Automatic annotation (TrEMBL):
Spans annotated as Disordered: 526-562
Domain Rab-GAP TBC: 241-447
Subunit structure: Interacts with non-phosphorylated form of RAB8A; phosphorylation of RAB8A at 'Thr-72' disrupts this interaction. Interacts with ARMC12.
Low complexity bias: start-end ranges: 544-562
UniProt subcellular location: Cytoplasm
Gene Ontology CC terms, in alphabetical order: cytoplasm
Pfam families hit by this protein: PH_RBD, RabGAP-TBC
Chief location of this protein within or outside the cell: cytoplasm
SMART domains tied to this protein: TBC
Name of the protein: TBC1 domain family member 15
MF terms in GO: GTPase activator activity
Species per Swiss-Prot/TrEMBL record: Sparus aurata
Keyword annotations from UniProtKB, A to Z: Acetylation, Cytoplasm, GTPase activation, Phosphoprotein
Role of this protein: Acts as a GTPase activating protein for RAB7A. Does not act on RAB4, RAB5 or RAB6.
Amino acid sequence: FLSTQLIFEKEGVYLHTNAKRSNQDTTIPGFIRVVERVMSSVSPAGQWSFSLPLSELYSLRRARFSLGRNFLVLTSRGGHPLPPLHFHRGGTRELFRALQRYIILDQSPVDGRLFLAYPCDSGALSQSFDKLQLLDEGGSDLVMRFIHDPYATTFGGFSKVTNFFRAALRPPDSQVYSRTAQDPSLPPQSDEEPGFELITCLGPRPDVTRGQPLDKWEEFLDPEGRVKNPEKVKELVFKGGVTPPLRKEVWKFLLGFYPWNSTAKEREDILRVKTDEYFRMKVQWKSVSEEQEMRNSLLRGYRSLIERDVSRTDRHNTFFSGNDNPGLTLLHDVLMTYCMYNFDLGYVQGMSDLLSPILFVTQNEVESFWCLTGFMELLHQNFEESQEAMKHQLIQLSILLKALDPELYSQDSGSLCFCFRWLLIWFKREFSFEDILILWEVLWTRLPCDNFHLLIACSILQSQRGELIGSDHDFNTILKHINELTMKLDLQSVLRGAEAIYQQLIQCKELPIKVQQVLGLYIPSSSEEDSPDSQTSETQRLLAQSQAEAASCSSASGPTYP
C-alpha cells in the first residue's frame, strides 16, 4: 500500500558526476521532489536516483557559480555528502520553503551558506531545559548554541549538561539505536562498539621518570647554524621540555617556522619573506572599509567573534591583563590575519586559546602568526564544522581506554564527551598557563606517537579511577568531577602516566590492530594503501559514495531527488 502527496517538484536540476572529465557528458538532467509518504515500498529508479528521508538530513549547503546558477550539497546524519545538485532554472528558495514545513533549517552564524537541519519538534528539548532551570538565560538558548556552535557551548555551559542533553547528542538513527528499534532481541554486533578487543597480554606498567629541560642550544648547531641532531633535541624536549629562555627559538623549529636543516643565513631570509607575506595579508583586512564590511557577513562575523574572545583570553596573565593592553591588540591582529590566510576556516572559538601562549613566548607579531599556522596544521580539523575529526578522536580514546581499563570505561561515560574540550584545544583550560607551555612543547615533538594527547587523556582518567568508579556515579556526577579537575592536575605525574601507558601497550606482543592504529604502530598492506581515497579526486570520491548509497537505500523511503 502506498499513499503519497507531492509537496514540491522542480525540473532542470542536474547532477554533475565528474567535473574533470571534459570529454564525457558529466551532467545528468533530472528533477527534485519533496514527497510526503505513508507506507512506502517503492525505491528510486535509475543508476543516479537516490532518496533521503528528511529525518536523516544533517545539513544543506547552498552556493553559487560565477554564472549565477545555484547548487546545493546535502549531507546525511551519517556524515556523507550527496552529489552536488545544480539548479539551472532556479528554485532553491522554493525548495527551502517546502522543506521548512517539516524541518527547521537554521543558518550557521559563521558560514551564511550552511544551513543545519533539525526536527520541528526539537522544542521538546528546549522545554525540558526550561523545566530543569539549568540556565538563567533559558534552556532553549543552550540548545540552540550547541546546535550552532558546539565548541562555544562546551566552553561556556557544558558543566550543566544533563542526561537529557546527553541523549539528545546521541543520534537516534545510529547503528545501535536502529538495530535495537528494529529487533530488540538481536544481540549487539561486535562492530557496533568502536574497536574494543580484550587485551590479555598486558604486562605490568613500567615506572617512567622525566628528564631535565633542554637548557643548551648552541651545542646542537653546526658552524653554519644547522641543527645537527634534530631527533636528539626532540627527545630532550619530550622528556623534560625547554627552559624559558630557549623557548622563543626552539618553538619556531617545533612548529615548522624554521626547517631543522636551515642555516642561520637561510633563517634570516625566511624571516624577511614571511614578514612581507604577513603584512600583505594584514593589509587586506585593515583596508576594508566599514561600508565594505557591512556587505561581507563572513568577515564581519569573524571580527565579532575575535573581539569577543580576545577580551576574555588569559586576562590573568600580565601580558594580556588590563585595558588597552598592546598584547590584546596583537592577539586580535594575528587572529584577524589568520582569517585572511585561511578564509575557509576563518575563526572558531578556541583559536585564541591556541595563540595566546605562542604570543606570550615569542612576543612578536610575525613569528607568533607563523607559529600559529604550524600549530593549526596539527589541529585545524578540530575546528571544522563537520566535527568528524573530534568524533574520530573520541572513538580512538574509547579504543584505548576500553583496552586499558574496561571497568573504568563501563561507567556511564556518555561516549567520553566530557573529554571534548581536552582534545579540542589540547588541555589548555585544564592546566596552568606555565604547565601548558611545557605540555604543548612536549606534544609538538610528536613523540612517541602522533596521538600522545590521547594517552594523556587516558592518564588523567586513570588517575581519577577511584573517584569515577562506583554504582552511584552517573554521567552527571562524572561530568561534575571532571570539570572540577581544572587547575588541580599535576602535569609531571600525568606525563609520566601517559608515557608509561605507551610503554605498557607496545610491550604487548598481541596488541589488537585497532590499538596499533591509534598508536601509529600498524603498517597497512600495499592493497590498503592503494585505497580509492588516495587515488581519486574529491569529486570521484563523492561519486563512489553516491553509487554505494544508491544501492544500499533500495528499500528507503522519503523525499526523492534526482
